[in-house]
Amino acid sequence: MTDEAARDPAALIATMGQHARAAATVLATAPTHAKAAALNAAATAMRDDRAQILAANRDDVARAQAAQLSGAMLDRLTLTPARIEGVATGLEAVAALPDPVGTIIDRSERPNGLRLSRVRVPLGVVGIIYESRPNVTADAGALAMMAGNAVILRGGSEASASNRALHACLLRGLEAAGLPAAAIQLVPTTDRAAVGAMLAAAGLIDIIIPRGGKGLVERVQADARVPVLAHLDGINHLYVDRAADPEMARAIALNAKLRRTGVCGATETLLIDRAFANPRPILSALIDGGCALRGTPDVCALEPRAVPATAEDWGTEYLDAILSVALVDGVEDAMRHIAAHGSHHTDAIVTEDAATAERFLAEVDSAIVAWNASTQFADGGEFGLGAEIGIATGRLHARGPVALEGLTTYKWQVRGNGQTRA
């Protein structure tokens, strides 16, 4: 890297983009076993370097605490031995997945004898801009590379030491497998101008995927000159139907909200059918579990420890132990509420009525819709995808957990025997 590139964020990203483009050309035809070997070697390196990774993460957490970051941000930032093992296991899981590159999606033959096929190919160079979660360094690097893409990672300054430690393990994996180091690059500066340079890098970066808070995603979507794959909010709903099993509803509500409050799959609004037999045990269990409830007047009448909800609460992604709660008049009213206030991320119904459940699954327009399951299953690993690069809530290219297949596109291959068009 030249001195100019080191000083100038635009020059830096241009240089990284050129190196990534060259690496992407190699990765597009790299054999599956080489890509898998790189990830398995990186997983071993993470286990070997666990002490160093934890030490780096402690430095990041200490700085974040001094800067008074929120509890949700601290939870996302913090690494533990179990979380590092989870990251390493995730790399191995991705390595074991079927390689989508080269998969034939479909074939056909035209009346004139032309044989057509659609074949999966990598996207090319993927840019990931993310905050807080150092595990994204490993997950995004692994998924992009396994799908045949080069990736440029720009993590948040609050996780800079952790990101560097994890990235070093990925580089050792690439080296062990004989793949180019530029396949997975980490932007070495925390200068915010580097983000702007990535967003303007049309021709060098093929797609940008932001992972972070609403402010980050809004900026990326507003300023990017490169296609963006993103979700803005995770305003997820859990609807307890009149035909719900009470104990199942209580258990799912507790898990959906409180298992980890800072993840994008956490439930932010609980809707309960007015005809449901007894909502009080669910409300009491949530408050006893440490969750603050913001409810409609009838909810506050049922549970005096709840506080009145405001209009803003229904559109708020708390990422904290806070839950909006409303009583609704059946599934149709619940779906109206979700349509008005949801973010098309993840919504769930608890009911023993199969017809009501199937209606909910069919009519709720979200990337993930669940029946009798926690919204916290909104995760690529839980979907058997090994890991995810994010949850996409749009309608183009990919939707829901974006893993290997979501990081590919396709091209048409046409095979003929001399046909010419009249």
Low-confidence sequence ranges: none
Inertia-based shape: globular
Oligomer: single chain
Strand % is: 15-25%
Biggest sheet features: 7 strands, parallel
> What number of structural domains do the residues give?
2
Total helical elements: 15
Rounded to the nearest angstrom, the distance between the terminal CA atoms is 53 Å
Query: Within the CATH hierarchy, at the fold level, what is the topology of the largest domain?
Result: Aldehyde Dehydrogenase, Chain A, domain 1
> Helix- and strand-based class?
alpha/beta
- In which range does the helix fraction lie? 40-55%
What CATH architecture label of the largest domain applies? Answer: 3-Layer(aba) Sandwich
Question: If you had to describe this structure to a student in words, what would you say it looks like?
Answer:
This protein has 15 helices and 16 strands. The chain is about 40% helix and about 20% strand. It has helices at about 5, 10-25, 30-50, 50-65, 70-75, 80-95, 135-145, 160-175, 195-200, 215-225, 245-260, 280-290, 295-300, 330-340, 355-365; strands at about 105-110, 115-120, 125-130, 150-155, 185, 205-210, 235-240, 265-275, 290-295, 305-310, 320-330, 345-350, 370, 390, 400, 410-415. With about 425 residues, it is α/β, with parallel strands linked by helices. The relative contact order is 0.14. Helix 2 crosses helix 9 (about 195-200), helix 3 (about 30-50) packs antiparallel against helix 6 and helix 7 packs parallel to helix 8 (about 160-175).
